[in-house]
Specification:
The complex is a heterodimer of chains A (461) and B (130). Chain A is α/β, with parallel strands linked by helices and 461 residues long. Chain A contains 14 helices and 22 strands. Chain B has 130 residues and is of the alpha+beta class. In chain B, strands 1-2-3-9-8-5 form a six-stranded antiparallel β-sheet. Classes of the chains: A alpha/beta (461), B alpha+beta (130).
Chain lengths: 461, 130
């Protein structure tokens, strides 16, 4: 069985390794760098920048921890970016090493589907090759979406791809879109010293999250003195010699050194030969697949951002595992009801399952348990007390419908609830489990207890 | 401890009224119950608020709570000093720790407020027994 994968991001590379583990002869074609957006332009680079911002913040507040700082601390963006490159390089080498170890053949170039059994590759060295294959898996990902009236120029009008590679810290930065990407960059560059104004079309920041989580994040945004303008669009951006002027939908103008456009991501489904085999796509170009990740063309699968929907690295990886299984004769499906997700703002946000407004819309009778980080001894010891745990369960059955956490280490804490949901456990199963003290995870237990007003560290209601 | 020149709301806020203008804050009891105050949300000036409804939110090391407006009216000013030093509320709740100034639109509601003697009795009889 020969399997060829287009794209070596978190969907494609995971798929390649699993297909090899299942005995297939695997070729993977990548035209930029293995690891895709996640490793080279997304998840990992931003997390290294956040690590630098966090270290800076802690050092600046050293006095709060009883430390005397003899001298000053300031960010050196070139060194911060150098550290980021090292981290990314190490991970890239790791994936290349895994390919070698599992016998996955990496072809560096751009692959175009000729027919369902053949892919033509324009290799980076200028030569051309052809790959004969039994199955094709498309994992070409997505790119930053731009606004046609003010496209990216890389110097004044930036995408997230540019924002992770700046060589100076902008004095001021307008961020169009206060979603996941916009908010992460707002906190990073604010800490580095930029004056930030976020402009968001929706009524709230991170509008896909639970409303309570958005409200709490907005308060943290205020505390950081990041400006957030909601219910407002950006109509045009004029680039001048020394900066940009953005005209908002209410007619007001704001000026800054640069503007970052983070309004979402567009699928990469063009110029890969889909038309040569008649793969069905949707309105935004997203490839349409069934529950087994197969397209309308027998033996051709698609996974990750290129199929639209929820664009998360770990979901792409899961889809890659399922596609590998199915392409090698299996019969697996992706379950979409338990997908944890994290936003690395300060503090972090994490969610799994339904938001409270979604539960209401579905007409499900529910109960909510809440617990504040500031009621945890560990949070006080760490000096990070802002945030809440929120667990939503079905009334009567106690089945967990969703969990939402904003607070330090939220991205790690959410998984206890994700496992419980995947295993069909109830809030009481979490509440009855002994949680180590002193930890932040105690907050998950207390929130589970609070569903029935039994949280010990909550005042009587 | 609770000054006589202000009027008290049962949700532990106070109003110092002069003509149709009120300065508003939280009471000594409120700041003591909250503990160390770490943040107060700045309500936008121009916002209309009804007596007995949320004026803004306040965060302490123990809890996040609503600040209930003792009067109905329009917020005209926020005590900017609280942005950088919210602990002033703990130190001087009836003085430097004032929160907002409000132009009163419905003076009839003032009669629902308590004077300091009534408020202290209220604390003794109803609040502390809870």
């Amino acid at each position: 069985m020969k399997i060829t994968i287009l794209g070596a991001g978190p969907g494609g590379y995971v798929c390649a390794i699993r297909a090899a583990q299942l005995g297939a002869e695997v070729t993977i074609i990548e035209d930029t760098e293995v690891g895709g957006t996640c490793l080279n332009r997304g998840c990992i680079p931003t997390k290294t920048l956040i690590a630098s911002a966090d270290a800076l913040h802690k050092t600046r507040n050293a006095e709060d921890f009883g430390l005397e700082l003899n001298g000053s601390v300031s960010p050196n963006i070139l060194k911060i970016m150098e550290r980021k490159r090292k981290v990314v390089d190490t991970q890239v080498k790791g994936i290349r090493g895994l390919f070698k170890s599992w016998g996955v053949k990496l072809m560096e170039g751009r692959g175009v589907i000729v027919n369902s059994k053949k892919i033509k590759v324009d290799l980076k060295d200028g030569s051309t090759a052809e790959v004969e294959t039994d199955k094709i898996i498309i994992a070409t990902g997505s790119s930053p979406a731009q606004i046609p009236v003010f496209p990216f120029d890389g110097t004044r009008i930036l995408s997230s791809d540019h924002a992770i590679n700046l060589d100076t810290i902008p004095k001021s930065l307008i961020i169009v879109g206060a979603g996941v990407i916009g908010c992460e960059f707002a906190f990073i560059y604010k800490e580095f010293g930029s004056e930030i104004t976020m402009v968001e079309m929706m009524p709230r920041a991170v509008s896909t999250e639970d409303e309570e989580i958005s409200a709490l994040l907005e308060r943290e945004i205020k505390k950081k003195k990041i400006k957030l303008i909601t219910n407002t669009g950006v109509q045009k951006v004029d680039v001048k010699e020394d900066g940009v002027t953005a005209t908002l939908s209410d007619g007001k103008t704001i000026e800054a050194e640069k503007v970052l456009v983070s309004i979402g991501r567009a699928v990469n489904s063009k110029n890969i030969g889909l038309e040569n085999i008649g793969v069905n796509t949707g309105k935004r170009g997203e490839i349409i697949v069934d529950a087994k990740m197969q397209t309308n063309v027998e033996g051709v699968y698609a996974i990750g951002d290129v199929i639209g929907g929820i664009m998360l690295a770990h979901l792409a990886s899961k889809q890659g595992l399922i596609a590998a299984e199915n392409a090698t004769g299996g019969d697996a499906k992706v379950k979409y009801d338990v997908i944890p997700a994290a936003i690395f703002t300060s503090p972090e946000i994490a969610s799994v399952g339904l938001r409270e407004h979604q539960v209401k819309e579905k007409g499900i009778k529910y109960k909510v348990g809440r617990f504040q980080f500031r009621a945890l001894g560990k949070a006080h010891a760490m000096g990070e007390i802002s945030g809440i745990f929120k667990i939503i369960s079905e009334e009567g059955t106690d089945k967990i419908l969703g969990a939402h956490i904003i607070g330090p280490h939220a991205s790690d804490l959410i998984h206890e609830v994700a496992v419980a949901m995947d295993g069909g456990l109830t809030v009481n199963d979490i509440a009855h489990t002994i949680h180590a003290h002193p930890t932040l995870a105690e907050g998950v237990m207390e929130a589970a207890e609070d569903v029935h007003d039994m949280a010990v560290h909550c005042p009587k209601k | 401890m609770n000054p006589g020149d202000v009027m008290y709301h049962k949700e532990h806020t106070w109003a110092r009224v002069s003509g149709n203008k009120a300065t508003v804050g939280i009471t000594h009891y409120a700041q003591e119950s909250l503990g160390d105050i770490v943040y107060i949300d700045e309500p936008e000036t121009g916002t209309n608020v009804d007596a007995g409804t949320e004026l803004t939110q306040i965060e302490s090391t123990k809890a996040t709570s609503s600040v209930i407006s003792p009067v109905s009216g329009t917020v005209t000013e926020f005590n900017e000093e609280l942005s950088d030093a919210p602990e002033i509320i703990n130190e001087d709740p009836y003085g430097k720790g004032w929160i907002v100034k409000i132009d009163i639109t419905d003076e009839s509601q003032l009669k629902d407020l308590m004077d300091s003697t009534e408020y202290e009795k209220y604390l003794e009889e109803e609040v502390k027994l809870k």
